[in-house]
Design goal:
alpha+beta, four-stranded antiparallel sheet, two-stranded antiparallel ribbon, globular
Length: 123
């Protein structure tokens, strides 16, 4: 799946089953989110959510991105609840299945965190 940002700052998803990793962009004129306010745990949860197509699902008592592999660290319910209170995730329950989706604010923070990680890792 490739994740692209449109000019309004919203994420657009285009399914590409053989894509190795999503492409995540901040608009050229988009300000950066103040990610220094995030704990490393919250930052990792937002990035996992963004990489998982913008949502998390609760499995066996822990949260994980839809595309999580067996080696990925589970995300604590406390972290998901904190991000919900911070306005970065919206949580819902449907037919006994809990899920959480990035809000516009959460997407902004996650995309900024990904951009910062890319800058640190070099070209």
């Amino acid at each position: 799946m490739t994740v692209l940002q449109d000019h309004a700052g919203e994420l657009a998803f285009r399914g590409e089953p053989n894509s190795a990793a999503p492409l995540l962009f901040l608009a050229p004129d988009e300000p950066r989110a103040p990610t220094d306010r995030l704990s490393p745990t919250k930052r990792a949860a937002l990035v996992a959510c963004l990489n998982g197509g913008g949502s998390l699902h609760k499995r066996r008592g822990a949260w994980a991105a839809s595309s999580a592999s067996a080696g990925d660290k589970p995300i604590s319910g406390v972290t998901v609840a904190d991000l919900g209170r911070d306005g970065m995730l919206t949580r819902s329950m449907l037919d006994g299945t809990a899920s959480a989706r990035l809000t516009t604010r959460g997407s902004w923070f996650a995309r900024t965190a990904v951009a910062e990680m890319a800058e640190r890792s070099g070209p």
